[in-house]
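re: the backbone from monday

yeah here it is again, tokenized this time
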């Protein structure tokens, strides 16, 4: 039996002002987002400029990856499939 697919994206070049909620709101435009998390530096609490988005279905994941340009708060985002 095959394991359930995880539809996970790596999102880079995030503005330091973007948190989990903003990331989830932006990617919800493409489909249902299970989780969206921004990685923060443990010592400073400042965003490290990247995060991960997990979609519940393949369609949302494909909609996001098929778009050529993603922009959030003035930054052009870098997205790519994330390893599980």
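seq for it, each position gets an aa:
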């Amino acid at each position: 039996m095959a394991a359930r697919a995880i539809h996970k994206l790596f999102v880079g070049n995030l503005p330091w002002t973007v948190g989990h909620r903003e990331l989830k709101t932006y990617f919800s435009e493409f489909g249902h987002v299970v989780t969206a998390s921004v990685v923060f530096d443990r010592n400073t609490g400042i965003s490290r400029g990247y995060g991960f988005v997990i979609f519940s279905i393949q369609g949302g994941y494909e909609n996001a990856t098929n778009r050529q340009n993603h922009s959030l708060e003035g930054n052009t985002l870098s997205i790519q499939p994330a390893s599980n």
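Residues 7-81 form a domain with the Alpha-Beta Plaits fold (CATH 3.30.70.330). The helical segments are 20-27, 58-66.
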